[in-house]
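Example record

One chain of 70 residues, shown exactly as stored in the release files.
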Amino acid sequence: MKTREVITRLVQFGLGMDGILHLGSFGMAVYEDAIGTAIITGLQTVLFFTAVYFVGHDHTHHGDNHDETE
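Predicted structure tokens for this chain:
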């Protein structure tokens, strides 16, 4: 496995764990009837899980020399 792939997977894992923590915070905010906090934390949770999905997927980066036809 290449170094870039390892780093990408570690970043995905870290974002996923942070997303789980935000999900827990969201649940606690809902339980405590802190609606404003729940909304903000819920949006952060969605952002983290969206980042986990997109990080590591097949994106074209500057300097990559792929033989892809579009």
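Notes: Residues 3-54 form one domain.
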